[in-house]
Amino acid sequence: MSNVADGAHDAGVARALGVDAQPWHSLDAAAAGVLAWLPVGTLTARAAMGGALVLAGAGAVVFVLARALLGACAEAPRLGAMVAVIATWCALLGGAWQMEGAAVGGSALSAGLAVAAMAALAAGEVNRKIRRSEGGSGGEEPSRSSDLPVQNSLRLAVLVLALAFSQDPLAGLCAYAACGAFAVGDPEMRTGMLEEWRRDWRALAALKLAGLAPLGLALARTRAAGVPVMDALMAPYAGERGTSAAGAPGHFVQGEIGAVLLGAAVVGTVLALLVPRARATAAALVVMTAAGLACGWLGAPLGPTRFGAPVLAAVACACVLAGVAMQALVRAIAGARVPLARASAAMVLVLELAAPVDIADEAYSRGSVRPHGAPPWLDSPAATWDDTALGVLPPRAVVLVTDRTVWRRAAAAEATGSLRGDVTLVPTFAHGAAASRVLARDAALIPLWRDLELAGTPSEGALSSLAAARPVAMAFAPAWGPVLAKHLVPAGLFDRFEPEPRGTSDRRKGLDWFLPKRERLARAVARAHDKRFADPEIADATAVLLRQRLLDLAASGDRDLVGRAVDDLHAFAPDDPTAAEVVQKMVLGKPRP
User: Fold this and answer.
1) Whole-number Å distance between alpha carbons of 215 and 52
2) Cα separation of 220 and 148, whole Å?
């Protein structure tokens, strides 16, 4: 959606398209690849269509959960189904779910899995009670087959809980807490779970391992890519933030749920807890709502551009609880001893139907206007970055990417069709199969591949031979030494590697040519009347490249150009410690204390 920060999806796009190894949210690649075979649009467009299917599946799960709760509260099949649809629409048509469903690698899949575990238990328990009540109405003893719903629902819940945890740890833990509350609230269900676990623990353990398999495979792939496993597990476990912040959920509840829907959820909670058959499901929904909102303090983004999976699950559960109040209101009016009571109840149901329509209209308005006032595709931060960093590259250029932040930004540009097909991106930090997929495309890359595998750094001879065959653009890494630094000349955000060393005058001309492009990019990234950046991911990727350029100029001994490189870096990282360190050592001639 156009109001979402463009760079906020860089990590999600790279993860969903399988170009970056990340342990969490590993199922995003499967969701993005569902419709990847369609010859329609760019890679991200097809991945977003897969996200639409995920959103539809999440809607079905929320409907099942709402239908189970409403059916347990009152015997009104047709009314319960209609109110369940309204409650589902209130959740899924809201801005939070719509934005994450449209985002490549968004959190809608994680939230849907968290809610699916509760829906499995609730639906199985309702079916079990219905079968037992039907069996007991004729004086017959309930048969053994009446335990099949709790058995099947438990197996499904075990599998889905493991999948939810392997996809998003916060959403998975919230789902475990909610299912625990479900078992505590229903002694019969708890007894059936314990009996089933003792009787069939091997099958349940196998389902648990099957659910954790995506996480294990993602960890193996991350380790094979050379990324430290602990570092990968810690970031970003709560999902990408974009311009969103975490913290107290008060503003989120006020803006995304609203006072009316929140009040209906509170009333619905009280009414559901008073019904013995619905008490367990209501308790699980309350726990999920509270735990999901509390995850804002643990790092889950709370909007306005990105939303964590626990937060989405909390919104869905709150809307399901609000459906209890909606159903109770319609039934109370229909049962009143006044003229036209049933007609009045029908009108109230129509008024309740207006709630999701209003929510959908607001979500559409939010998705149609960019928050910083720029047109959707004109001078957006991502488009300007693509033009400044990648649009200036010569034909058949080879780009050596030394940082994962820049790699994700470039991969997102490639997926959106902003990168020309003749440009080759080489992640110098990748090894093994991840590197061979790129470096084996051209025989001219073989010397570079050999150096990266054996020494971890490219040699001057390998880069010079490659630059003689194809243009080479790169960002300087301090570990590569000052010998390579003298070959680099600024060309956009990257530096072009020349086969022979270049002088200060060449680098000065490159900085002069880059200045207007830097100012344009700074205007696109800046937020009006605010010191923060409108797109922090684009600012971070830009700062990484300009920081590496500063280190390049310092290593090559161009003292006169260091000040200009510091100014370029400060436009995107005003308080960068590397710039202060370089200024202390080169300009003032003394190390930083």
Assistant:
1) 23
2) 37
In whole angstroms, give the CA distance from residue 155 to residue 117: 10
In a domain, 593, yes or no: no
Burial 246-283 (b: 16+ CB within 10 A, else e): beebeebbeebbbeebeebbebbbebbbeeebbbbbbb
Number of folded domains that form the chain: 2
- C-alpha 457/C-alpha 429 separation (Å) is 9
The residue range of the domain holding 346 is: 6-136+145-366
Look at strands 472-474 and 424-427 and give their pairing: unpaired
299 shares its domain with 442: no
DSSP-derived secondary structure letter, 396: T
What digits encode the pLDDT tens for the residues 287-323? 999 999 998 888 888 877 788 899 999 999 999 999 9
Same domain, 523 and 576: yes
547 and 573 in contact (C-beta within 8 Å)? yes
Report d(CA 8, CA 33) in Å as an integer: 20
**Residue 399 DSSP class:** E
The tokens of 372 are what? 């910083």
Rounded to the nearest angstrom, the gap between the alpha carbon of residue 8 and the centroid of all alpha carbons in its chain is 9
| Number of Cβ within a 10 Å radius of residue 591 | 8
Residue 60 lies in a domain: yes
- The answer as to whether 371 is a domain residue is no
CA distance 127 to 156: 15
Which of 366, 394, 410 delimits the end of a domain? 366
Residues 6+ apart with CB under 8 A from 77: 71
Residue-wise pLDDT tens digits, 351-366:
888 889 888 888 877 6
154 and 243 belong to one structural domain = yes
Q: What is the mean pLDDT of residues 71-90?
A: 89
Separation CA 49–CA 514 (nearest Å): 38
User: What confidence tier does 378 reach under pLDDT thresholds 50, 70, 90?
Assistant: very low
Residues 355 and 410 in one domain: no
For 237, the token pair is: 């476990």
DSSP secondary structure letters along 223-249: HHTT--HHHHHHTTTT---TT---S-S
